[in-house]
Amino acid sequence: MNNIKLKSMLEEFLKEDLGDGDLSSESVFAESDKGTFFLIAKENGIFCGKSVIETTFSLLSNETVAEVYVEDGDSVKEGQQFARVTGSMRALLQGERVVLNLIQRMSGIATSTHRAVQKVEGSGARVCDTRKTTPGLRMLEKYAVRTGGGYNHRNGLYDAIMLKDNHISFAGSISAAVKKAKQQCGHTVKIEVEIESEEGLIEAVDSGADIIMFDNCSPKQIKEWIRHVPPKVVTEASGGITEENLNEYAHTGVGYISLGYLTHSVKSLDISARVFRQEGVL
Description:
It is built from 11 helices and 13 strands.
């Protein structure tokens, strides 16, 4: 993860929440008041977000000490206390919501990805994400997918060519779209083509596509059509794939399975925060 970018993102998130100041904490506590902040898992899952915890509180006060007892990708159990932050009570309370919002979501993505990876185990297929991420959070969400054992698809429109149905419609055909893309892109840029029919698959292979995406195809169709794909061409399945049918898709012979639900409809992992004064519980 890009720590410079992370710091910049967290600064913006804190500015959004703090505005001109924290009325609640600043009206009740002095700058010299110290306390301890604990993070506790309220359900089983995969933790993700250690850097978020450490960086957020350091931005609020350089006197805070963050101790995270687990690493990204570690399992956490219900009731487990996995982090302790000590320092200014104002800083702890000001960073609480930003930290929880992010690590709950990131841990939820990591947990969901971990489950998906377990379902395809032994098939040879790899689980990957999509661009269906929350605007502004793509770096964190894709990092969470990797933390859960998955792989990243392209990060944005800038790092790979993916010719979808609308590109093909505008270009006139798969062959025309691939030809124009090859004329414009460098030799290091991969070209992926989305297909929905056997005829489209054959055309995509013949036109020199590097990656074939079986879009909204059934497992039966993929098993029948994949014989047209030479070994050098990477294959991917996407669209309509859920936890319930994931294993079936994994055994069609495709190399990758991209899952939008990992990021666009994830359930956050339930994590709570408890704050203590030095002389006792608040």
